[in-house]
Specification:
Residues 61-123, 124-213, 219-323, 324-428, 429-538, 553-630 form the Cadherin domain. GO terms for molecular function: calcium ion binding. This protein is mainly beta and 684 residues long. It has 6 domains: 20-114, Sandwich (Immunoglobulin-like), CATH 2.60.40; 140-213, Cadherins (Immunoglobulin-like, Sandwich); 221-314, Immunoglobulin-like (Sandwich), CATH 2.60.40; 322-419, Immunoglobulin-like (Sandwich); 441-446 and 458-529, Immunoglobulin-like, CATH 2.60.40; 537-669, Cadherins (Immunoglobulin-like), CATH 2.60.40.60. 7% of the residues lie in helices and 42% in strands. Strands 1-2-8-7-4 form a 5-stranded mixed β-sheet. The protein has a 4-stranded mixed β-sheet with strand order 15-21-20-17, with no helix packed on it. The N and C termini lie far apart (121 Å).
Length: 684
Amino acid sequence: MKGPALLFFALLSFGSVTGQVSYTIPEEMTKGSLVGNIAQDLGLIIKRLISGKARIYTRDSDQYVELNRERGVLLVKERIDREALCRRTTPCALHFQIILENPMEFYTVTVQITDINDNAPTFEKTEMEFKISESAVTGAKFVLKRAVDVDVGTNDLQRYELKPTDNFVLKMHNNADGNKNVEMVLQKPLDREKQEQISLNVLIMDPSSTGTMQRIQTIQYRRKSTVTENSPKGTVVATVTASDAEQGSNSKITYSITNKVDDVRKVFNINKENGEVTLIGNTDFEDSRGFQLSLRASDVGGLTDSCKLIVDVLDLNDNKPEINIMSKSTVISEDAKLNTVVTMINVEDRDTGERGNVQCSVSDSVPFILKSSTNHFYTLVTDSDLDRERASEYNITVTCSDDGVPSLSSSVTLTLQISDVNDNAPVFERSSYEAYIVENNTPGLSIFTVKASDADWNQNARVSYILEDSSVNGVPVSSYVSVSADSGVIHAVRSLDYEQIKDFHFRVKAQDGGSPPLSSNVTVKIMIRDQNDNPPQVLYPVQTGGSLVAEMVPRSADVGYLVTKVVAVDVDSGQNAWLSYKLQKATDRALFEVGLQNGEIRTIRQVTDKDAVKQRLTVIVEDNGQPSRSEREREREREQPKVKVTLKMSLNQPSRATLMEIKMLRWYYRNLWTERNKSRYPSC
């Protein structure tokens, strides 16, 4: 038995088709026999076969050849019988593709199966009887049924021999289809009185086998007819006629079909009386493009003649294109390069001529196109950039139409998911944030929330929030606030004091879960709102311990005389620092008043001799903090931030020097306070 032979190898360049190779092997090789080293012949390394999950793609239900990835070779998988696979068709070949993934590629492989002489020629019957009149004339022909050898080529039936040849000789005629028709010709008249029965042997031989049969045969004529495929049963295909020179009952002719080894008798019938050949079965051009009918005409005397009726089946456009998905991806990354192969398609139309020509296209408005690799093969490739955020899925309809009239078409819809790539950074809802918090807050208090979104998907869209390192007045910002990594909620870490810090800012980073991660940041400004948590402080007159502040008022003081001025400040801000002065107690309320806004103590009438020498005044300083001092809140007056100062007034007639000294002291303290505090307390 011969081993496999490599016929040819050609390197091609058709998109995803990168090569084709052909092998020749004899039939009947044992299972596991080597067909060829496909890796070597295609220039592939074993690692590529394994990583690409190399496999065989074939439309045939039976797979006779298998691929061993680890060795890179093709092996016989099942016994191959050329006669069962191809019958008498030559050449006989297996066609398949080697498919690889990541990236998609395919290679066309042809394995031609050669014949070995493993079948002897045979007759359908080993005996055959002819009844021949002794009056048969010399030259009368009798057709022998043809012997059959299922082998082909030089292994087919070669010759016939007849023994003995006393009365008959054999004549062979070669048909256009390569078959031989054998006639037995009478060369010596018969004499029934001398020999009632003659036994003859016919030997049939191919190069290595011989068969025998006792029988007799005839001559052949050829006729042609046509029938359109799918014609209804009963359609008349042809009519054959024969004539007989004899008269009487011997001239009655009957017709028959003598085919034995094919399906002719299942498709055609001949009327034995009139020779009309009709359809009794289905004709399908794609299954059989023609039939050869062996017809025999026989008379009552046993004389026969025969002819061949060649019936050609005419093709109709009755087959839609068949779309076969050889390999496909259901998911493709959104960063796939242009011309990335997504699907490989094989399209077949069983019709012939223009009816079998097929054009394929894809639905509009998709970033994919079909490229024709070779005849009947297409690849679906990317035609533009993909963006999962714009379209996460495509339904791609591939439609294939033939050129028949009317045109037939088929379509298939491919669903393709676009997988995510981390190509989008998180985006905050605002370009910057501002938030307020009232001082004296509880540590851990939630201030507000920053929010960022990511257009990517799944892990790539999972956002975490991070407080970026910075400082506030030399102190790490993390000692003031914290950020929840999952929710973006900003919490106060400590209790804030407006009098120490009025506002501060920091940056929050939003980072996704991609690899590598993408991020963006935003500036956050926290402004602290004042709370009325500080009482006013009296700067003048200065009180030490529980002592009273003494002031002197001349008895000659006129109405509106400035006795002194109470000066106070409040470190709070806004209305919390607006101060008001009120006279709470006085020895004589009709003698003095206090300016509500400026704290000036003045006389409101002329001092008289009847007035007590010692006058005692208590002045209260209050701020304007919230809540406002309603009547109800007055009942809780003790809770309102305030300060009290008590002054002792002496009514006498001081000397001129004493009055001058008092005026100088007032001027001194007034100017001293102003210089020290005018920048800090501009409202005073």
